[in-house]
Specification:
Strand content: 25-35%
Order of helices and strands: HHEEEEEEEEEE
Structural class: mainly beta
Oligomer: single chain
Number of helices: 2
Bound molecules: zinc ion
Distance between the termini: 33 Å
Length: about 170
């Protein structure tokens, strides 16, 4: 893997292109008012993040520990049984090196997105998050990682309370 793409095919649409109406542009105002409940399982998970804790749900039917947690096991068709505290660490099960932003503009530096299997949960139970503090060419499937938390007083009970995961530095 020594070849690196330096010139991408196609033409990027710039903000100036949009402003000058080089492309069809439609503006409209929506009036979307709604309330959304995170639910029992996700609510507890999000509150845990505020305390730098990861929580899963155990199912006695299939012996799995589910994360993100749910109150109902989709495999057994029965309620899950209890909460289980997980480590804020895990391993990379899949990842992507993204060279474009969500608005399709190109990034000068790639961003790393990965699914982390969380330690203490069942195999392949994990969360999607950012990988940081590692160059793309060093990322490997199975790489041990740990959460990097937002500082105390800045966490709000959101998945972004974890800034990113990075290669494991803690001794075990
Ligand atoms: Zn189950």
């Amino acid at each position: 893997m020594s070849s690196k793409i330096s010139v991408y095919p196609g033409v990027e649409i710039t903000t100036e292109d949009v402003r000058s109406q080089k492309y069809l542009l439609t503006k409209y105002q929506t009036g979307l008012n709604y309330a959304w409940s995170s639910g029992v399982a996700m609510g507890r998970f999000l509150r845990g993040l505020k305390e730098k804790e990861l929580w899963g749900r155990e199912c006695d039917g299939c012996q799995r520990i589910l994360v993100p947690p749910r109150m109902y096991c989709e495999s057994c068709y029965r309620p899950t049984d209890r909460w289980s505290r997980l480590r804020d660490a895990g391993k990379v099960v899949t990842y992507s090196i993204a060279h474009v932003n969500s608005d399709a503009s190109r990034r000068s530096e790639p961003i790393l997105l990965a699914v982390m299997e969380i330690e203490g949960a069942s195999p392949l139970m994990g969360i999607l998050h950012l990988l940081g503090e590692v160059p793309p060419e060093k990322v490997r499937i199975g790489m041990k990682v740990e959460a990097v938390w937002r500082p105390d007083g800045e966490r709000t009970g959101a998945i972004t309370d974890i800034l990113h995961f990075r290669p494991m530095t803690r001794s075990r």
